[in-house]
Write a structure and sequence with these properties.
The structure holds 2 protein chains of 2 kinds.
Chain A (H helix, E strand, L loop, with lengths): L2 H17 L20 H15 L16 H14 L4
Helix pairs in contact in A: 1-2, 1-3
Chain B lengths: L1 H12 L12 H11 L4 E6 L5 E5 H17 L7 E4 L5 H12 L3 E4 L9 H15 L3 E4 L1 H10 L5 E4 L21 E8 L5 E7 H14 L8 E3 L6 H14 L3 E4 L1 H6 L2 H10 L3 E4 L1 H10 L2 H4 L9 E4 L6 H11 L9 E6 L6 E4 L6 E5 H7 L12 E5 L3 E2 L4 E5 L12 E6 L6 E2 L3 H7 E2 L2 E11 L2 E7 L4 E3 L2 E3 L1 H10 L3 E13 L4 E10 L8 H17 L5 E5 L14 H12 L6
Parallel strand pairs in B: 1-10, 3-4, 3-5, 5-6, 9-10, 11-12, 12-13, 27-28
Antiparallel strand pairs in B: 1-2, 7-8, 8-20, 13-14, 14-17, 15-16, 18-19, 19-22, 21-22, 22-23, 24-25, 26-27
Classes of the chains: A mainly alpha, B alpha/beta.
Chain lengths: 88, 579
């Protein structure tokens, strides 16, 4: 799965399940948590989604504002996890 | 129906507000519990890193006495307001108790530890310190310099390193009287700004003395709580109830729990936790965001009461929560629904078992303000969750706009009367007078009585309740007004019940200035608005919706019609927000 595919699936989830504005356009480098678009509770929800959608488990202590503030950061983390699990 | 109406009228004609004179203070009650067994486990503190610190009752008591004496040495006198702007830590417990023991009036402020913006935190504390005329603010060392600058000439800023960590025994530096204010609970009002709810030592004790037998609290009970201590439910159930009752409390920070909700379930397993309190959204969060793998091996069978309160209770949230946890020993029968407010210390009504749903005719409800029972299968039937009957001596009645008490199943404003109502809003006798009528506290919530139970069914005032916290729509609208690109006076904010989140989501509907002067278009305006609300209130807006000019219709008085905008929004965009 390409980085773009991962970002697209994350974007769909965030716009539809968290913000509930399906037409919202989110840039890859846009701060989502420090930008007031989603909060840290949504991050825990996103962690479960990532595990189900991509088979990548991100430990709770990595689900932080600093590490997961943009779609780009999230996608990189998913791809790193997928590689280390031998999946992808 | 007539007889219930008469009963209520008789109640209203009664002697009015009767305050229980328990003749004691929180210090005396905690001191008594410590004297019975100073070495018992009082607090288990679960750190963000998973560390666990055990604090004995005597140890916490002596640390708090040390703080009480240190505050006196800093010149803090009886009945002076002390704001606590501290991270979630054992230091917060001893500072809070120290102020309480020393007869000052503590108020715990929201402290968002993962908020990187120090300036925004300082501004929030400054605004409150000025409005509340606080004598002092206690803060961590890193906030001392910026807060000191911001509060020069307003309040003294004391950082915790100046208070030392000397534990003391012996007597407290000042005597507290039962009728003196124990603490102030800040809460958002509808008209913006914070209201400080003053509750006395006697009121808190009267509530706890009623609550403990109602819940059949025994020395074997263990409280597990991640609730913020600046919230009435957190400080009363997570700290004061356990200390007065002499039972352990297992505490973890709200930010830790939000990130990893399993932490609370693990604590119930490890410490045989029996009692919990949470707002409704937490039931949804646990159901949704706990990982299957983390649940394996947990035994939750010691859990005997799981209270749902502080925001409207949803049956679907409870059902999802039970479905996730029943395989691990959690039983559906332990769930209770409650209704309360800081003005009554906390809970006013509580169910005696899992909350029941009352299905009523939506048509009668909206047109005639009557909750007529209908079968659940009726098209358009409205599900209203029962909140149970009066707890700890509290009574509930329903009144119409003129203050006349209404019979069962007629919808009106919920009134509460109890032996432990608040002393008034801090520095706002006008608001206190408006909130009281013949000894009853007017909640501003809508509901009805049926079969000796009360049901909350909505809000008379436009308050938004997100995760148990009151948010004033005026405050959000004022921020929108100041956001470049938004037409001044053309933004409305309201809450929309969100089934996924199990709480309300904040929706802002606004008209844009034409032509837009700023580069970046509507998307840039939205980003600025979201960031401004986050900086000012510490919360994320759910949905921002820009509409064409004239969409928001004003009444002749110029007031923004939130109710009509909300209805129009739901009708127009309802398909995107789920059930």
């Amino acid at each position: 799965m390409t980085r773009e595919d991962v970002i697209e699936r994350l974007r769909f989830f965030i716009c539809n399940k968290i913000v509930k504005q399906p037409t919202l356009s989110l840039r890859d480098d846009e701060p989502l948590i420090t930008g007031g678009i989603m909060d840290s509770m949504a991050l825990a929800y996103l962690g479960v989604f990532i595990e189900k959608e991509f088979g990548v488990q991100i430990p709770d202590n990595e689900l932080t504002t600093e590490a997961m503030d943009t779609l780009g950061q999230m996608a990189d983390r998913v791809q790193r996890g997928a590689r280390s699990d031998g999946g992808g | 129906m007539n007889s219930s109406s008469l009963d209520l009228t008789e109640q209203a004609r009664g002697t009015g507000l009767k305050r229980q004179e328990s003749g004691s203070t929180l210090f005396a009650a905690i001191d008594g519990a410590v004297a019975r067994d100073a070495t018992r486990l009082a607090v288990v503190w679960i750190g963000e890193d998973g560390s666990r610190a055990s604090i004995q009752a005597g140890e916490l008591h002596r640390a708090a006495m040390g703080r009480a004496h240190a505050l006196r040495r800093h010149g803090i006198a009886s009945s002076e307001l002390v704001l606590l702007a501290l991270p979630y830590s054992p230091d917060l417990l001893s500072s809070f108790l120290g102020a309480l023991y020393g007869a000052a009036i503590p108020a715990i402020l929201p402290y968002v530890s993962d908020q990187p913006d120090v300036a925004a935190q300082v501004e929030r504390v400054r605004r409150l310190a000025v409005a509340a005329e606080a004598r002092a603010v206690i803060c961590p060392p890193f906030l001392a310099a910026p807060l000191g600058d911001a509060l020069r000439g307003v309040s003294e800023v004391i950082d915790t390193s100046m208070l030392g960590s000397v534990a003391e025994t012996g007597s407290v530096p000042a005597s507290v009287r039962p009728e003196s204010t124990a603490l102030i609970q800040f809460t958002s009002g509808t008209t913006g700004g914070q209201k400080g709810v003053r509750v006395s030592n006697a009121a808190v004790l009267s509530f706890l003395e009623g609550l403990a037998p109602a819940l059949e609290v025994t020395p074997r009970d263990v409280v597990v709580s991640w609730l913020p201590l600046y919230h009435d439910m957190g400080v009363i159930t997570g700290l004061l109830l356990p200390l007065v009752q002499g039972i352990p409390t297992v505490l973890m920070s709200p930010t830790h729990w939000v990130r990893a909700p399993i932490v609370m379930l693990r604590a119930i397993h490890d410490f045989n936790g029996t009692l919990t309190w949470m707002p409704n959204f937490a039931f949804s969060h646990i159901a949704r965001s706990v990982r299957d793998a983390d649940l394996q091996g947990l035994d939750l069978s010691a859990w005997r009461l799981c209270m749902n309160g502080a925001e409207p209770v949803r049956e679907d949230s409870i059902a999802a929560f039970c479905a996730r946890l029943e395989a691990f020993g959690m039983r559906r029968e332990i769930v209770r629904a409650g209704y309360g407010m800081a003005e009554n210390v906390l809970t006013a009504t509580l169910t005696s078992g899992p909350p029941r749903v009352d299905w009523v005719s939506a048509m009668d409800f909206q047109k005639r303000r009557i909750a007529s029972p209908v079968p659940a299968s009726t098209a358009g039937a409205l599900a209203v969750v029962s909140n149970g009957s009066g707890l700890a001596g509290a009574e509930v009645a329903i009144a119409d706009d003129e203050g006349r008490l209404l019979p069962e199943r007629e919808v009106g404003e919920i009134l509460v009367r109890s032996p432990h109502l608040f002393d008034g809003y801090h520095l706002r006798p006008d608001l206190t007078a408006a909130a009281m009528r013949d000894g009853w506290f007017r909640t501003g919530d809508l509901g009805y009585l049926a079969a000796a139970s009360s049901s909350f069914s909505g809000r008379k005032k436009d308050l938004i309740i997100v995760r148990g916290a009151n948010i004033s729509p005026e405050e959000i609208e004022a921020i929108a007004d100041r956001t470049p690109g938004i037409q001044a006076g053309r933004a409305v904010a309201f809450g929309v019940a969100d089934a996924d989140l199990g709480t309300e989501r904040i929706v802002i509907v606004a008209e844009l200035r034409q032509p837009l002067p700023e580069a970046g278009g509507p998307r840039a305006v939205e980003a600025a608005l979201r960031r401004a609300v986050l900086d000012s209130l510490g919360i994320a807006v759910g949905t921002v919706c820009f509409v064409e000019r004239g969409w928001i219709t004003k009444t002749s008085s110029g007031k923004l019609p939130r109710t009509t905008s909300r209805a129009r929004y739901l009708e127009q965009f309802g398909e995107t927000i789920g059930p």
